[in-house]
Design a protein that fits this description.
Length: 293
Amino acid sequence: MSAPIISVRNLTKRFGEFTAVDRLAIDVAPGSIFAFLGANGSGKSTTIRMLIGLLRPTEGSIEVDGIDVIRHPRRVRDHIGYMGQKVSLYQGLSLHENVEFYAGLHGLAGQELETRWGALRERFELSDAEAERPENLPAGIRQRAGLALATLHRPRVLFLDEPTAGVDVQSRSLFWELIREEADAGRTVFVTTHFLEEVDYCDWASFIDEGRLIANAAPEDLRRRYSDGYRVHIDGESAQELTTPAVDDAFFAELESLLAVRPGASVRIDTPSMTDVFRRVIAESNDTRHGQP
């Protein structure tokens, strides 16, 4: 098993008497899409700022791509790409001028820049937007441009903080296709989102509440633990409903045997929503915190 590309231990951040992040411990597998979830004020953005070296923790350790982020915050920035909730494109400059500015920060110029940006421009469908200023672009195009710039220097890890906030459903879908392509190419993506249905695009999900880690597993494992399971409706003669904890090989074998005696029956599978999972995670965390069984 590969060593984690992000490793966090006992990560804590206090602002005076207030603890924003409390003894956080997570590992992120290389090449995965890792969802970091929580309500507003739960500590998500504070955590990301520490992971990318912009905020020094009160306690704990952070390693990203083999670099001690606390000791070498500047060194880690060549290994990561970052896209915040508001895409950091300079107004008053065209998109192409923004590209040249960001490229300069990473020492990219000349033919090397033209080759890299040419490939990104085509892949992210930005050719028609190159001469436009960011303030004149639709939100979906600005988001694609922000992701393209975050990958311009070929970072090993991408940090995306609420990357699809404020864009329409179609643009969000396209954006996640691009994120999956990044992961398939070997890049690790650490993403926060308040659209809980987007967790299904991810390989792993961690929930925090009041700065503490309260759930940490693959999305399907979270559904098994924090839901009543999948509801399966078999319609037709002798209609039947059943519940299963997982849609796996064992389930399909059972379903096949049921359908064998109900030729022509239709099947509908209701998936537990991640919103309901999140509510149960929070409820169980609150019960544990207050000593309830």
